[in-house]
Design brief:
single chain, 192 residues, mainly alpha
């Protein structure tokens, strides 16, 4: 697994058949894949500074036109619609179990929310084929399951639009106040 829990490779010992029954190979690979994912996620969390916050975006001379009540209501309605659309897309990815079958048809699996739930392998095929071919089909299925059951680019949140505009306004309270037609003080704290 990569540090971001992407499947890089599956490696079987060339002598795996001496210690694992081909009918139990799926359970062994499932256990190893989920353990590797947990280790990658744990390492990722260790290197994440949860106290760091993103700096406020610099004011780049954006729109300074006054906001009317209708403008604000339209912006809030648009942001609500964008959020509903985003939530629907995200739910379709993470809340539904997905199934993937290898192109060779010998390995298949299911996953939900990035966790591999099942792996099945044709044990007759696995008992007689080269281990490198088994590895390739497992990698294909595991990558497909991760891609299909994790939010991918949706993890960054809703994209540009009304939500971004609201976030930019919230990040610059003085600009928000100016656009709402409210007086913006220039003094220090405690001054009127």
């Amino acid at each position: 697994m990569s540090p971001t829990a992407e499947v890089i490779a599956v490696r079987l010992s060339p002598r795996w058949r001496g210690s694992v029954d081909p009918r139990a190979l799926n359970a062994s690979v499932l256990s190893a894949a989920n353990a590797a994912t947990m280790r990658a996620l744990a390492r990722s969390l260790e290197h994440t500074d949860l106290s760091a916050s993103a700096p406020a975006p610099p004011h780049n001379g954006g729109d300074e036109s006054p906001l009317t009540n209708q403008d604000v209501q339209r912006l809030l309605d648009s942001a609500s619609a964008e959020l509903d659309q985003f939530t629907t897309r995200l739910s379709a990815v993470v809340d539904q179990p997905v199934q993937v079958r290898s192109s060779g048809g010998h390995v298949q699996g299911s996953a939900q929310r990035g966790q591999v739930l099942t792996l099945d392998v044709d044990s007759t095929w696995a008992g007689q084929i080269r281990h490198s071919e088994i590895e390739m089909e497992f990698v294909e299925v595991l990558r497909g399951l991760r891609d299909a059951s994790t939010p991918g680019e949706l993890a960054a949140g809703p994209g540009d639009g009304a939500i971004s505009e609201l976030m930019a306004l919230a990040a610059d309270p003085r600009r928000l106040m100016r656009r709402l037609g409210m007086p913006v003080g220039t003094g220090t704290a405690g001054e009127s």
